[in-house]
Amino acid sequence: MKSSDNRITQFVVVGGGTAGWIAAATLGNVFKDTDVSIEVVESPEVGIIGVGEATLPHFLTAIRNLGIDEVDFIRQTQSTFKWGIEFADWAEKGQSYFHSFGKIGRQIDGHDFYQLWLKARSEGDSVSLMEHSPEGILAGQNRFFLPHKAAQTPLAAVGYALHLDSTLVGQYLSRYAQSAGVKRTEAHVESVEQDAEGNITTLKLKGGESVSGDFFIDCTGFKGLLIEQTLKAGYEDWSHFLPCNRAVTVPSAKAEHTAPYTLATAREAGWTWRIPLQHRTGNGYVYCSDYISDDEAANTLLNALDTKPLGEPKVIPFLTGVRRKIWHKNCLALGLAQGFLEPLESTAIHLVSRSVAMFIRHFPDRGIHSTLVDEFNRRMHGEYAEIRDFLVMHYCTTKRNDTPFWQFCQNMPQSEDLQRKLAVFKASGTVVPGVEVLFEAVNWQMVLTGMGVVPERYNPTVDALDYAALRASMAAGKAAIEKIAATQPTHDEFIERFCKAPAVTM
Question: What is the number of other CB atoms lying within 10 angstroms of the CB of residue 441?
């Protein structure tokens, strides 16, 4: 076994925001009370984009693993709860569907519930798939749940995430990380020095100071100061798969009632989001500039608001894709420096947490073994590709042809993996598993069913079950969910009672 003389003892994170402080907080927690130093260099000249303000359940797991009190985090970040996403006007105008977290129904004699539902549907049962989803029913009733009363009920395994203020999240994690010994330096990086092998050695700061390190984490946003401008890692452009290339955002006043889900509404040249927080509402329009101008997009967004705007619309250009080498030499890229997938399924913060966890799993020494780097990059590229295909699926299955954008989507490029997944699903309702599984079979089933994609048949082995008993079991499960959901407090009542944020002055 090799000695630890070559171990990494100096980490430098360039850029703050959510990505930078997730990295610093996680590393600070891992190396607390050791001689490993972690320093965040945060420029006062660079603002935070903060496009996404919605998360997946995995983020709460990461917060809990840091030992952070969930209730305090929710209060301090003005968070609300999220059961999933309502998609309006995606399959056809005037239609909507819900994509929730968690499972739907339960297996019977080893049969996947979706196959049981397909069987019931073929027998004339008109109960929708989401009527078997606890999260879907709670969202439809604008309710949240009392976790201590959920044991031994259909709510015991529900999954939820958060809507949050990304600026406040960065500030919260900054305080947490610094309490764990992370050093914060407020300065602008003017130049980067490298050794003979191309590894980064030193950052030259505005004002004449410098910061040296063994390993650097690039959280400098789209420009990728370290990973691209310095190390030339390259970027894989996926705009041919996902043509939306701009977002216009604007906050608006707090809604009278805060819905426990994100609303994603298909528009003329893309889609808008509405994310309710405790102190305001987050709004944005993701669109393709080939089909609509920035001014038209901003007007569309403003006209769609259901509360008063709290500022002027801000346009953010982006290029969908991923860095060819996410980890290159002694530098790891995170957040927008790593890549960008539009926030349709709220995957941005997940990819940051996932990358940090994967890096720790493949943790190097200063020698940085290429095998670890290659495996990390392979796994993360696989994750990006599978999320990309999941997003493309929302577009390519549409029946809309009312605008040039949606006409394009009906014939848009698809990866071979996605083509195979869709073909297998249409033939049998079966979902081909991916290498890196963020979205499981049930997620594909919910979205494809919502988009009106119906398999040609169910698995014939289901016919071995007694259908009368099957239907009675499914009806009993649905009734049990509805009964327990009706006893839960509304979303607003739950927040007011258990995790209301301190009052803020807007």
Answer: 16
> Hey, what's the torsion of the CAs at 272, 245, 451, 422, to 10 degrees?
-160
The torsion region of residue 15 among left (phi > 0), alpha (psi -120 to 50) and beta comes to left
d(CA 209, CA 186): 11
262 - beta bridge partners? 85
Catalytic residue chosen out of the listed positions 82, 119, 254, 329: 82
Residues 6+ apart with CB under 8 A from 57: 101, 159, 160, 161
pLDDT band, residue 49 (cuts 50/70/90): low
* Rama region for 162: left / alpha / beta (φ>0; ψ in -120 to 50; rest): beta
Lowest mean pLDDT among 1-5, 105-109, 500-504: 1-5
pLDDT tens digits for range 297-310: 999 999 999 999 99
Query: Average pLDDT for residues 167-196, to the nearest whole number?
Result: 95
Q: How far is CA 345 from CA 372, 408, 500, in A?
A: 29, 21, 26
Is the pTM for the entire model greater than 0.85?
yes
The pLDDT tens digits for 305-343 are 999 999 999 999 999 999 999 999 999 999 999 999 999
Distance CA 505, CA 296 (A): 31
Q: Is 32 among the residues known to form the active site? A: no
Q: What share of the chain is helix, strand, coil (3-state, %, to 5)?
A: 40, 20, 40
218 strand-pairing partners? 14, 333
Q: How far apart are CA 378 and CA 358, in angstroms?
A: 11
> The tokens of 449 are what?
């069913």
What structural domains and CATH numbers belong to the chain?
10-53+165-236+321-368 (3.50.50.60), 80-158+398-491 (no CATH), 249-317 (no CATH)
CA angle 410, 412, 417 (to 5 degrees): 110
Give residues with Cβ within 8 angstroms of 314, minimum separation 6. 248, 249, 250
51 band by pLDDT with thresholds 50, 70 and 90: very low
Structure tokens at 331: 């530098």
What average pLDDT does range 441-468 have in this prediction? 96
